[in-house]
Amino acid sequence: MTTTHSSSTRYRWFILSIGVLAQIVFAIGFAGIPLSGVIMRSDYHLSMGELGFVLGCMGLGVGISEIVWGILTDKLGDKVVLMIGLASMGATYAIIAYGFVPGGITDYRALGSLLILAGAVGGSINSSSGRAVMTWFQDHERGFAMSIRQTAIPVGAAIGSITIPFIASSYGFGLAFSTLAALSLIVTLVVWIWMVELEIPEASTQNVSGEGVSPLKRMSVWKIALAGAALTFPQMSILTFASVFLTDQHHMSLFVVSIIAFSIQLGGGVLRLVTGRITDKYQNRRNMLRWISVIAGIAGILLGLLSGQNEFLVVGLLIITGLAGNAWHGVGYTEIAVAAGVRYAGRALGMMGATVFAVSFVIPYMIPFILKMSSWSGVWIFVGIASLLALPLIFESAQPMKKNLVAKEGDSVG
Fold first, then answer.
1. Residue-wise pLDDT tens digits, 24-45
2. Angle, CA of 111, 48 and 293, to the nearest 5°
3. How far is it, in rounded angstroms, from Cα 83 to Cα 80?
4. Which of helix, strand or coil describes residue 389?
5. What are the C-alpha distances in Å from 281 to residues 142, 290, 324, 327, 390?
6. What is d(CA 268, CA 264) in angstroms, rounded to the nearest whole number?
7. Phi and psi dihedrals of 322, rounded to 5?
8. Does the pLDDT value for residue 177 go beyond 80?
9. DSSP states of 343-385 as a string?
10. Are 366 and 311 in contact (CB under 8 A)?
């Protein structure tokens, strides 16, 4: 089902809500599974290295599939790709629940392979829902709209950080993965029934350079994607190993750790909305990304230097690092999509997703290695330094040209 630009402008918010719902379901699993790491280590009898591998597998799956999904989204449209991804992700979770939980096949490589598959098919949600934002909203609204969509990730992660560890610890991983499967399939039906795909007018199909060059061939777009990868270090390090750090180093209970994780995800979601609104008003997306990089870098380094100190100070620095790591997404994804142009929005969002989720895979596998060679102090100092790598990649102060992107008021639904 498609519609034209004469459609009701209010419907764009309903379309956005569907994308938000899809992102929430993905994030519940993507965040809830890692935050069940302490339980998983015990129930599956995993070493720290094996746990790190398993916890990074969904990120690897998303990373290796994002660009492909971006290309398919540009060619097939938002709705088809979103349905394929959600249904396939639900089916994969169902397979894990059926035979790859404690009491069944518990080999970490088998579980990891299925989580890679879940991530690979779930990665379609990012490009397809993001492209819908680019087609339904004008540039002066896109930062806020994309931030709302990206806020779905910490909101979903907040829900996942409470529910999935609780279900896994109380009822087992079978019910935890079955719950994820059911949610995925329910949202597939929602997309099928209510999702409307907007046709892109010819006037807005040129990219910002006006030359029809794919963003895959443009270094300026790749720099934004790599900056996003750098800013993923604080987010994913907190997401995957904060629970282990606080449990092992400061002997906090799972309940307290879950509350801290919930606060970081919820606060990160609020910050995404705030930064999106600010950058729409002042058109300063790259300046905002630079500030976030500096805050995450300084907080991460201080956390490393003070990791063994008073637990209130440690938790405070951990929260700041996590909030900064969560705050950039709406701004960053908008910037790369605008830089590429509406025609190539799917590809550009796929590029960002590829770098972000490749790092999401590397981090859980890397942290146990750094921990073995150094300490938790070394881990957080490394995270802080990695966050600062975004600065040279987004050094240009000027925003990419947007004149060809939104040449007329009617280029996108207002």
1. 999 999 888 987 888 898 889 8
2. 95
3. 5
4. coil
5. 11, 17, 21, 17, 23
6. 6
7. -65, -40
8. yes
9. GGHHHHHHHHHHHHHHHHHHHHHHHHHHHHHS-HHHHHHHHHH
10. no
Residue 391's Cβ-count burial label (10 Å; 0-12, 13-18, 19+) is middle
Q: How confident is the model at residue 400 (pLDDT cuts 50, 70, 90)?
A: very low
Res 9: pLDDT? 66
The label of the residue with tokens 């950039």 reads 328
Model's pTM, two decimal places? 0.79
Pairing of strands 2-3, 197-198: parallel
pLDDT for 214 beyond 70: yes
Secondary structure class of 175 (helix, strand, coil):
helix
Q: Which is it for the CA torsion 163, 168, 172, 173, positive or negative?
A: positive
H or E element at residue 198? strand 197-198
Of 307, 172, 194, give the one whose Cα is nearest residue 242: 307
DSSP letter, residue 34: G
Mutual angle of helices 311-327 and 254-282, in 10-degree steps: 40
Structure tokens at 31: 């965040």
Helix ranges (H only) for 251-375 are 254-282, 285-305, 311-327, 329-340, 345-373
Q: Is 197 helix (H, G, I), strand (E, B) or coil?
A: strand
Gap between the Cα atoms of 219 and 197, Å rounded: 30
Nearest alpha carbon to residue 90 among 181, 211, 177? 181
Quote the tokens at residue 71: 């290309």
Strand partners, 3: 198
Q: What is the pLDDT of residues 8-20, one digit of tens each?
A: 567 888 888 998 9
Say whether 287 sits in a helix, a strand or coil: helix
Distances, alpha carbon 77 to alpha carbons 82, 242, 332, in Å = 9, 38, 22
CATH code given to domain 8-404 = 1.20.1250.20
Which 3 state secondary structure label does DSSP give 2? strand
Closest among 2, 8, 65, 1 to 413, alpha carbons compared: 8
Amino acid at 237: S
Q: How many CB atoms lie within 10 A of CB 343?
A: 20
